[in-house]
Amino acid sequence: MRKTGLALGAAITASAMMLSGCAGGGADTGAEAVYIEAIQDDPVSMNPAIASSPTVQRLGEAMLDPLVGITSDFVIFPSLAQEWEWSDDARMLTLHLAEGVTWHDGEPFTSADVVFNFEEIMPLQTYAPAMLAVIDSVEATDDHTVVLELNGEYGPFMQTLALQYMLPKHIYEGTDPTTNPANMAPIGTGPMMFDHFSSGEEVVLVKNPNYFRGEVQVDRAVYPIMPDDNTRTLALIAGEIDQAEIPASQQDQIAEHPELVHRTTGYFPQGIILQMNAVSEPLSDVDVRAAVFAAINRDEITEVALKGLGEPAQGFFPPSLSWAVNEDVNFDEDFPGDIDAINAALDGAGYPVGEDGTRFTLDVKYISTLTDTADAAEQIKAMLADVGVGVNLEGVTSAIFIEQIYTESNFDLALLRTTVSADPSLGIARWYVCNPDRMGARNPSGICDAQIDAAAEGALLTIDQDARGDFFKEMQQRSEELIFDAPLAWTNASFPTVNTAKWNGLVDPDPDTASTDINWLTMTPVR
Fold first, then answer.
1. Long-range contacts of 129-132 (CB under 8 A, 24+ apart)
2. Nearest Cα residue to 101 out of 81, 85, 131
3. pTM of the entire structure?
4. Which interval of the chain is the signal sequence (predicted)?
5. Facing residues of 43 across strands?
6. CB neighbours of 68 closer than 8 A, spacing ≥ 6?
């Protein structure tokens, strides 16, 4: 039976007491070290090599390892591959694997597992096929060495590799990887091992005593399933859980408790982006699109909808990707929020204010469960009213959003929270390159521009960062001229909030901690 409210909170506390032998959740002196983090829904899978969602990622990364990791600052670090080297012509990559590594069931991890993953598992992952297209062969030259022969360069090769979690050949060989039972009870090499899952209740992991990267500091990790925002907030305040995602709308409650710290690091940058349907009237006119974008006050959205958790976007790339940012693109300068100038531009585009006080009306859609985009939509409605543009707001489920925005093109404006991912080619360029097949989570505008596509393609064809940066700057310049998709703010609003009363080391990531992961090796109980 699913528990809610105080009943669920009591269940969490009782569970923690049974697990740790102490009078509450988290860690305690002389007791089993228990870490408790709320998740929002039942996992449909626990294998991020096969499925994708925040819950899948959160659980999977605790049990599985990639060959290389990538930090939230985009730094590649060793994982199952302890060393690697490129040939001078960038046509061969040699991976030297860590020795003495075992899967959670005791079987050895070897180069045969790596070859199997390249051949059978990675083709199923979202980002891997483009990387695999430049690989001619994968060979295990001994138990701990894998050699990749390439037919060309692929810009985000290492970044894409960092998103591939290794699965055991002896568990997956000869099966359908998408339906293998191990997807719900992973056998990995990671710091934590699967213990049990109770639908609607919790997922529990236990310490891997033989983790190859070092001593894991957590004996058990408990993930109570708490879909309700209020329940998570109250449980965090009460000290029943150690970490949870708390919406921006409830951060004022968090601010009253100094032991609660909202994380600002440890995750790839996220953005609230505005998408425009350039096929529908009147947004088929670039001058109208520019005027609509200029009318949206990004500072106010950051301050109100996001409760100050972030910064207004000044360009298409976040500042942390400084090597790729086009400094000549400046939203404040190029799209000034001058109401008189915006009104004049809309008049000049042939859309005068009618008798009803509006020039035209736009359908604005967003995912209703994302409170930050919902609040931003309300603000945008008021802002566009100031220049005579009517707005119909429609909050929909994630599934309907995907269908209406990407498949049916049934929208005028759409608001979305998204991540820049491990590399601009993976997380940003997709919103600007041509999408004639209307694939989900890709450019829904209907615009196909040869300059943008050529620049994005150029960034894919070289691993030289300076050259890639130049291509991305060209892409940004042309995207500004066409203005059909743009971030409104870079935000950490959906980053988790931690209770520091029971664990040290949860707030900031270690240098070799992957984006979204926690410091399993260095977090310590508060004594």
1. 130/154, 130/160, 130/460, 131/156, 131/157, 131/160, 131/161
2. 81
3. 0.92
4. 1-23
5. none
6. 76, 77, 78, 79, 80, 81, 84, 158, 161, 162
